[in-house]
């Protein structure tokens, strides 16, 4: 009887809580809306739900996520009321990308974010953002791309330019940040890191363990769920962070304050 009343209370509180959010498809206790969501067609499903619920609704994955599906609601949230919607979740999977809490510019918020943004913009301007030196950097990357396209295909057969393009864009960023770029013939390091990123996305995308930890952060300490949803992706992306740290340290050593 005790168990039953606990369950009923839980269910009651669950739906009390659900009522606080914009109305959407019916969630079930614990699993939320996971029971009818299909990862393959998610974008289309959400679009249809938007039509039904007035372009603003909640899905429980199982953590509540409020979705906007048309231009004017998105614009109102992100531009008109940007201040209110500028917060970050501080949850997995976002925080997997942070080596330390509230760092970086993508997933920090509030004062920290503002400060980071200000400093980053200033540094990027010093490095030539919006000026000719950056244009020259972009040109060098494109030259590299062209050399490589000429060298690796006969101009007749179909050719996958996915990787060459990635390398080209990545090289612009690397030139700016670290002052060097990767030649196509010497892009093993680059590939290694692209693979880490791709692997990361594969690990966190539509992954139940990740969603569970997102809904109940303490779950990262559980066996299996914690390993799949937290420890493994963290270790994977950690290799990337270690590389950046190494590069930054190298650059810091050769940095001339009086320059
Ligand atoms: C970059 O390339 C474009 C196209 O070839 C050229 O017009 C431009 O002057 C180049 N810019 C620099 C800074 O080299
Ligand atoms: C810069 O090079 C590193 C190492 O190869 C690579 O992981 C990274 O993706 C490059 N930067 C960008 C922004 O692509
Ligand atoms: C979650 O990730 C793990 C490890 O990356 C994988 O083995 C598992 O199949 C994934 N589960 C789902 C539902 O995608």
Q: How would you describe the overall organization of this protein?
A:
The structure is a single chain. The chain has two domains: 84 residues, no CATH class; 144 residues, no CATH class. The chain has ten helices and two strands. Strand 1 and strand 2 form a beta hairpin. A two-stranded antiparallel ribbon has the order 1-2. The model has no long low-confidence stretch (mean pLDDT 89). It has 259 residues and is mostly helical. Helices cover 59% and strands 4% of the residues. The chain is elongated. Helix 6 packs antiparallel against helix 7, helix 8 packs antiparallel against helix 10 and helix 9 crosses helix 10.
Give a short account of the largest sheet.
2 strands, antiparallel
In the predicted model, the low-confidence regions spanning at least 5 consecutive residues are none
Average predicted confidence as pLDDT: 89
Instruction: List all distinct small molecules, including ions and cofactors, that are bound in this structure.
Output: 2-acetamido-2-deoxy-beta-D-glucopyranose
What is the alpha-carbon Rg in Å? 23 Å
Keywords: Monooxygenase, Oxidoreductase, Signal
Pfam families: p450
GO molecular function: heme binding; iron ion binding; monooxygenase activity; oxidoreductase activity, acting on paired donors, with incorporation or reduction of molecular oxygen
Protein name: Cytochrome P450
